[in-house]
Amino acid sequence: MNIAVVGLGYWGPNLVRNFAAHPGVGRVVACDPRPERRAFIKARFPETAQAAAFEDVLADDSIEAVALAVPVDRHHELARRALDSGRHVWLEKPLTSSVAQAEDLMALAQTRRRTLFVDHTFIYTGAVRKIRQLVDAGELGDILYFDSVRINLGLFQHDVNVIWDLAPHDLSIMLHVMGAKPAAVSAHGIAQWYAQENIAHIALYFPGKRFAHFHVNWTSPVKIRKIIVGGTKKMLVYDDLETSEKIKIYDAGVNVKSEEGVHDLLVQYRTGDMHSPRVDPAEALSGAVAEFMSAIAEKRAPLTGGAEGLDVVRILEASEKSIKQKGRLIEL
């Protein structure tokens, strides 16, 4: 299958490299209006073809799929044109900038019988795959909470706030690991320098007293990429910045006993051993490309398709409404 990668900025070259390495890809077309970016790709991947405009990609009937690594405000327009022309579409996260746009792309992909894929890359990491295995096996027990911190001294975005920029990663992990959708969201934050919020806290409420919390920040002096998953049996810490022990499982928790009434409530803390399971070191993006290609060949929904992308966008959109109203609870 021939595929075009549209957008050769920060992430586009990684897509070119991984698609070129996949045995199911015949030709990769690198598309970007900037000649210096096309030259950059040509020097590193001389076997790639070149295109200066998206229209050139659509005019090439040999191209069967399009991977879009462009700003999110262009996702809907370009993806719609690609789907309408009969191409399979790969989109970077988030899927779109609104729920209405996401639903439109999903409907069009279904009508055209084409694959719509969202690159929630972390779902394909060895660490997240291991966490999902542990949850499915019941090692943590019933999941009680999901607590995430993704902060750093990063680049301010002018088109989206910190929620839209950083939260999609951990929201996709949370939905994948917990296997449930939240019922409501509340978001707090502030824009201290520009119109877009640079620091935010998101709280998600689930049926059955389960809870998830996310802290995202562009202005932290330290870089932290950490998730804690608490269960009734054990607790898990996932530190993406760790090189050797990304996942640590703690035999720790809380045992609550009530004999006769609330005044007899007994709380006991349990602390036991910690162990760190082995994590597959394979590149996540390679796994995402393999899933995209397999979903097309097998004519099935991919692991991170339009439905999964829509779930994330729905939370992002509701969080945007909440943060503009000082944390008002928004039903999902």
Characterise the protein shown here.
The chain has 332 residues and is of the alpha/beta class. 34% of the residues lie in helices and 31% in strands. It is built from nine helices and 15 strands. The strands form two sheets. It has a nine-stranded mixed β-sheet. A six-stranded parallel β-sheet has the order 3-2-1-4-5-6, sandwiched between helices. The chain is globular, with a radius of gyration of 21 Å.
Summed up, the domain count is 2
Task: Estimate what percentage of residues fall within beta strands.
Answer: 25-35%
Contiguous low-pLDDT stretches (5 residues minimum) are none
The CATH topology label of the largest domain is: Dihydrodipicolinate Reductase, domain 2
Which CATH-level-2 architecture of the largest domain? 2-Layer Sandwich
Count helical runs.
9
Helix content: 25-40%
Number of strands: 15
Biggest pleated-sheet summary: 9 strands, mixed
**Backbone shape:** globular
Note the gap between the termini. 39 Å
Strand order of the largest sheet: 14-13-12-11-7-10-9-8-15
The CATH H-level superfamily of the largest domain is Dihydrodipicolinate Reductase, domain 2
Write the element-wise H/E pattern from the N-terminal end onward. Answer: EHEHEHEHEHEHEHEEEEEEEHHE
**Average pLDDT over all residues:** 94
Structure class: alpha/beta
- At the first level of CATH, the class of the largest domain is Alpha Beta
Question: Could you tell me the radius of gyration in angstroms?
Answer: 21 Å
